[in-house]
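Q: I'm building a small set of examples for a reading group on sequence design. Run inverse folding on the following structure and report the sequence directly after it, with nothing in between.
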């Protein structure tokens, strides 16, 4: 359902992503893991068609996002980090607005809105202005908006960043429910997030894929995850030092 094929993005002399390739199938929740500045957000933007790759391609539900972005977006739900919301609107009015933009048939709009409100647990704030909601609730509203048109593929960029422990748990529970029937790619640098929600790990470091496999292959315990993360990112630091720092004999 989601394919990255040798995605590369170059800015002048800086390579933000280099030959990034992986696939995520239906019913998988894949965590796109890596340190800050590793190329996660750049890759996510290329996957959703927001950013044109220097080379390579991305496809969503069979649509090439460099050539068929509009068709691909119909099968895609995207929650960017700090996704924009209109503070004067309520979840009710925002979802109604996006239902119209998504061209959901009028007879189906109310039932579809009710479904995502229940999934994201927004009943208690449904008619409250978004500007007065906590960050956790705003994040869940963004998730409801991304799911409103019932997409086959859902991509989320740092969905729990800045949330408190209770808010994180609510978002994690929603992600697990979504992942039962859809293809989910979740970008994060938080190791606990991976063990909590994912079936698969795709690790990017220094703009390149360093690991792609099942969660248990990456590590079976939190300590294993910490150690593996340190091992992979230390290679990145070593490459940087060899390339940029003169060696003393």
């Amino acid at each position: 359902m989601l394919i990255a094929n040798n995605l590369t993005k170059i800015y002048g002399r800086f390579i933000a992503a280099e030959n990034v390739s992986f696939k995520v199938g239906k019913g998988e929740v894949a965590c796109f893991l890596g340190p800050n500045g590793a190329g996660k957000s750049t890759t996510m933007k290329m996957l959703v068609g927001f950013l044109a790759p220097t080379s390579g391609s991305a496809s969503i539900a069979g649509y090439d996002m460099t050539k068929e972005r509009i068709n691909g977006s119909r099968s895609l739900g995207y929650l960017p980090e700090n996704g924009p919301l209109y503070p004067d609107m309520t979840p009710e009015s925002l979802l109604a607005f996006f239902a119209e933009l998504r061209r959901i048939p009028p007879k189906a709009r109310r039932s579809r809105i009710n479904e995502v409100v229940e999934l994201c647990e927004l009943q208690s704030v449904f008619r409250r202005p978004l500007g007065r909601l906590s960050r956790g609730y705003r994040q869940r509203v963004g998730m409801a908006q991304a799911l409103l048109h019932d997409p086959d593929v859902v991509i989320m960029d740092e969905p729990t960043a800045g949330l408190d422990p209770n808010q994180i748990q609510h978002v994690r529970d929603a992600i697990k429910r979504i992942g039962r029937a859809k293809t989910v790619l979740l970008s994060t640098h938080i190791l606990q997030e991976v063990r909590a929600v994912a079936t698969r790990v795709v690790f990017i470091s220094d703009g390149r894929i360093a690991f792609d496999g099942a969660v248990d292959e990456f590590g079976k315990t939190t300590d294993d995850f910490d150690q593996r993360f340190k091992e992979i990112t230390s290679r990145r630091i070593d490459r940087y030092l060899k390339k940029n720092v003169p060696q003393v004999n």
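Residues 240-245 have pLDDT under 50 and may be disordered.
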